[in-house]
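Continuing the series of single-chain predictions for the mutant panel. This is the parent chain; the variants come on the following pages.
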Amino acid sequence: MLLLPSAVQDILLRLKQKGYEGYAVGGCVRDMLRGDAVHDYDITTNATPYEMKTVFCDLHVIDTGIQHGTVTVVYQDITYEITTYRVESGYSDSRHPDRVEFSRSLSDDLCRRDFTINAMALSEEGEVVDLYDGKGDLARRVIRCVGDPKERFSEDALRILRALRFASVLDFTIDEATEAAAFLLADRLKAISVERVATELNKLLCGKGVFRILTRYIDILSVVIPELLPMKGFDQKNYHH
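Parent structure:
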């Protein structure tokens, strides 16, 4: 059983008392299972943004991305993003969904997420909902896409770099099918903004497994940093390099 901070428990309890579901979701659950420090808690619910505004009518609520189901609730001077369960479809630009539909099913929301280790939810009582064996992949130290990796990377090509970033930061390996899809669809990274790419690269380069990731995935990284290609397979014969 994992114990959420009291403020997060209060938010989930408020939703529950009004007849809605609510879970902490994504990276915070992953980091809690690993025993890492958690810096922010994302919350998902079957309540729509307008229903959330009613639930939290006594608090400051910000319309962060209300068309996509997200509001920000300020509670005890801390902001919490709360997002309605949703289904996404049609990624014509390899970045954003063409259509977003709200759902009442947690499973609908978890199946659209990128990797198994990021597709777990945690209830107010401390129960982990793990539909894709994210806990198993944490134990195996593996980055694996939820469902078909070709679909996940076609939806948002930045997920290719995210896979490499998580593998570097956590010092994990990448699942064989996920790796194959990353190599196959690497050219789609050309459609991603330099700002989004830079954010992932900065984290990747500071990871514990950076040398292994740079050398194994140079063909992917060279799509966004073509200057890497002349270094492929080149022995510097110098300790400092």
